[in-house]
Amino acid sequence: MRRVGGPARLVAGSMSAPVYPAWVTRWVSGQWRQKKRPPVLRPTRPLVLADKVTNRKEKAGEATCITEMSVMMACWKQNDFNDAACAEEIRMFYDCVEKAEKERKNLNEDTLSPQGNMPSSKVNKLLRRFPQMTRYV
Prior knowledge:
By secondary structure, this protein is an all-alpha fold. It contains 5 helices and no strands. It is elongated, with a radius of gyration of 37 Å.
């Protein structure tokens, strides 16, 4: 009893494993992958940095003085928006705003943002200072 037309050969009376063609055993074992070369990557553009980056707006930072503002507005609501009755709360709010503005001005452009990013203006300055080498000496 013989089976014809299939990848495996069966012979009547034998209980051995089927015999597959050589290309099937290479394909199953993965040897065909080792003989292939890796694909050749040819970039469409030269692999160098651009001369400048686009200007992007920095994301707004965290809001400051929210609690002082809410205390001041609650005081206004309780006292029919009378500034004299809420002078202490108003002064605390303005002190907080002044302190936040000083901290924002002290934040130098050389430092990274809280997210760890550098502003695009600083990146452009560095790229102008250290231009890309287009050809080697």
